[in-house]
# Entry
Amino acid sequence: EMWIIVLILAAAAATRAPGQPPFDGVIRAAPDGSHYAFLSPPFVSNHAATIELLPDGSLALAWFSGAAEEADRCSIVFSRLPAGGSTWTKPIVIALQDGYSNQNPLLFYDALNRTLYCYYTRLKANAGEDAAEICVTASSDGGSTWSPFQQWYQIPGAFTRNRIIPTRSGGLLFPVYNSTISYSFMLIANTPQTSWTRFDVAKSDNLVQPTVVRLTPANNATLLSFFRDRKSRHVYSATSRDEGQTWTTPTATVLPNNNAGISAYQLHSGATLLVFDNTDDSKQRTPLTVALSYDAGAKWPHMRNLQVKDDTIDGDPISGTASAPNAVEFSYPTVLQDATGKIHIAYTYDRLTIKYVQIDESWIKAGNQ
# Structure
């Protein structure tokens, strides 16, 4: 009966009132020069998107969707934007299990083996995060079909969030964190199939969800990581010059953090881009802002808000969820830049759905901050 209720609520969420744009995945032009789409929500609560670029130029997107965060049968869902296309595909469920909640997916395309991986955190439903573990499923056809899941990293409390990046030796660096004790660590391997070695980030207590970039040029020895602050004060940063094995002591940047997710990406221009909630109020997840730095995060001369308040059409807000009808939340961004310079961002929109936005660097520089 509960599952029937969830499906009814999901249908209600997906069918908007007259005059409001449907959550149909169609990309539309915005008055400010950006483009956007509301993904089709499979279930009533949607959060924590991850975006990846595939070799043919298409975009892959995953997030978790269910009755609520930590609820039974909370699933990982997947959608794709074909290269040159204008509509995201209808999401499919790629990981769902009775008695468990699947959360925080992380997509990674392995060019060597032509395989798209989706790592995610699995925990027993409504039992907290203490026993969370990381699982993985994989696709060899661009996300049309997926393998049965496998338990991948079983240290209790382990959580995924942000992008895997290549090392200079051709290996991989996977930023991870422990939600139970609240600290960050890195997993490093030669390929997804080989064993991963763990390296803790020293003095990262209460600093989680690391998002790592390699400073320009592409063979630069310096890695830069930003961290979410559990104490809701600042975005923190640290650097590494040995491919993520050791890090400088994390220090506060000038940017605030509200104990919510952030996402960084190194642009072709050499700028470091960060998407974050521009507030230190832990009860608020707006505005969602994009910022540019040209000196490894010391200063951020260009900022522009992606979202401050709910979108409207004909004066009516697109807002609310079944559990929180007045909720306003723009959070947990994921970002990448393609070869043409377009910047693709996806984020949680009021837990109703995932919103996709397409901009470029000039759009940020012309900003309102």
Summary: Residues 1-19 have pLDDT under 50 and may be disordered. DSSP finds two helices and 28 strands in the chain. The longest strand covers residues 100-110. The CA atoms of residues 224 and 239 lie 5 Å apart.
